[in-house]
Write a sequence for this structure.
């Protein structure tokens, strides 16, 4: 076999991500890939790829030593892949929730945080900090349908707030109307004495002198 053809032969190894690791989320699977890429040497990062639920490491046969080193890192990482923290975009996909819902439920404590993580954006000096979540907690929320319960609770609270707001507005209108009626009544009773019936005749008789 010609030398250049021999070098083109690839070294390939794959690992299967369990359902417990991905929780049925393609976004979570991609997040795991990115986590693995961050652990292998920089020269091996682009050699890792995701195919469905499979992590694939592929390199030319000429890079056997680098391939072996990267594979060893992945083998160790795969031991605890199911315990990797769940990041915001992953939990939104797993639980099928919106950004606003995640923020609201995180703020009121229904969605418990497992801490925060700070990362630097690619190619930028700026860093961002975000909450991470315990995969076991996320799995429990998914299994018991907590999101549906929370949405029902939020809908009920929203309806109650609308009712209270409507009552408050009605009460305010009633108080304004009562105040206006009272003011009009007071102004009517304070008319000048000259306008009272019989006042001129009473004054002519000199009874006020």
């Amino acid at each position: 076999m010609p030398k250049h053809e021999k070098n083109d032969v690839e070294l390939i190894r794959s690992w299967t991500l369990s359902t417990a690791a991905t929780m049925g989320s393609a976004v979570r699977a991609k997040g795991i890939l990115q986590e693995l890429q961050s652990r292998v040497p920089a020269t091996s990062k682009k050699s890792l790829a995701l195919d469905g639920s499979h992590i694939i490491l592929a390199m030319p046969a000429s890079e056997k030593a680098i391939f072996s080193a990267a594979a060893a890192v992945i083998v160790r990482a795969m031991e605890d892949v199911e315990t990797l923290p769940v990041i915001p975009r992953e939990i939104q996909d797993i639980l099928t929730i919106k950004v606003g819902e995640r923020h609201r439920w995180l703020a009121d404590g229904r969605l418990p945080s497992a801490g925060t993580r700070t990362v630097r954006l690619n190619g930028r000096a700026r860093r961002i900090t975000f909450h991470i979540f315990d995969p076991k907690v996320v799995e429990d929320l998914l299994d018991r349908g907590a999101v549906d319960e929370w949405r029902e609770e939020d809908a009920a609270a929203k309806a109650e707030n609308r009712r209270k707001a409507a009552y408050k507005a009605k009460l305010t209108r009633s108080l304004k109307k009562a105040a206006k009626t009272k003011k009009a009544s007071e102004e009517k009773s304070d008319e000048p004495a000259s306008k009272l019936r019989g006042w001129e005749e009473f004054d002519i008789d000199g009874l006020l002198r």
